[in-house]
Amino acid sequence: MTDIILFHYPRPPFSARVLYYLAFRGIPYDQCIQPQILPRPDLARLGIRYRRIPLLSISRDVYLDSPLILRTLERIEGAKPPFAATSTPEQRALEQLLAKLTLETGLFRNIVQILLPNTPLMHNEAFMKDRLDMIGGGPGMDFADFVLAGRPGAILEVKNTFEFLETTLLADGRQWLAKTEAPGLADIEMVWPLHWLISVPGALPEEHISSHLFPKVFAWIDRFQKAFGEAQKALRAPETLSGERVAELLEGAAAEESKDVVDASDPLVQASGLLKGQVVQLWPTDSGARHKTVGRLLGLTDKEITIETFEGDVSVRVHAPRRAFQVAALPSEKAHLS
Asked: Where in the numbering of this chain does the DUF7962 domain appear (predicted)?
């Protein structure tokens, strides 16, 4: 099995998707714990400016964004078969639809607006400034005001999500969302933001969202967490690695022959004239867009962008999904970096 390192920090909601997946697939990994806010020198050492968590490395390949991480892990030979190997077309459709619900709608933002005002982080100036940078807020914008202003509407939207699950997928008494025998990818895609909300002390607006109002949803979340706990026990505990140690391991990892291609028929390639080996910058378009990673373009397809960094102490191949990411030639005045 290929060496896997997860870059994350305690209790980040998006990392939960990856941690759930690794446990239920029985895939061992090690971890490099990151600060909750910038700077993150461990990633800078690899030439990575991308600021979101989690990231996952497999040898010298570093994957950004949890959807791509899960898609990549589906190709890993673990102790258990990949979820896609045992799911029907209907189950795979449900998995993708639930992923879109949690990742491509306002659900996550709404949950942040519900829980953040009830945590000490709301009064942590460094944290609030960091998250304002994350969403691209300009001068004069107050992140606390942004969170508080949207909270009433956010409660209603999240309540509607609980009601949707209670009255549809879980209404017939099934144990797992896709009627699998054990927790599946559909459960992973849906449970992580809801568990995050109900697990933060004092965050839940219980007059609107509670186990009394939505017993089936709360029972499903509890069932899932118990199954996750058992799966974690069966997996070896991850070793916590320093950033220096990670850099040593990645620098010494055998570099596999690159099979990446830049698709000449891709609309972006046709419009911008991007070429393999060209110095480019890569960034997410939805949040954290100010932080651009620089490297040489290795691959660009309709699913994935791959660049090779050269600004850090160690060169790595960085992979990002096409959705919500952009790549462009580095401005000419900076091209001398190559």
From this structure: 113-233
Overall domain count for the chain: 2
What type of residue sits at position 211? Answer: S
CB 300 within 8 Å of CB 266: yes
Reduce the DSSP state of residue 271 to 3 states and report it. helix
pTM of the model: 0.93
Residue type, 273: G
Residues 101 and 192 in one domain: yes
What is the tens place of the pLDDT at every residue in 202-217? 889 999 999 999 999 9
* Cα–Cα distance for residue pair 40/33, rounded to 1 Å: 10
Q: Which of 99-113, 114-128, 155-169, 266-280 has the lowest mean pLDDT?
A: 114-128
End-to-end C-alpha distance for the chain, whole angstroms: 34
Distance CA 232, CA 74 (A): 18
**Which residue in the block uniquely carries the two structure tokens 């040489």?**
296
Expressed as residue numbers, the domain containing 110 is 85-234
* CATH number of domain containing 122: 1.20.1050.10
Q: Which two tokens stand for residue 63?
A: 């994957």
- Structure-block tokens of residue 139: 């001068």
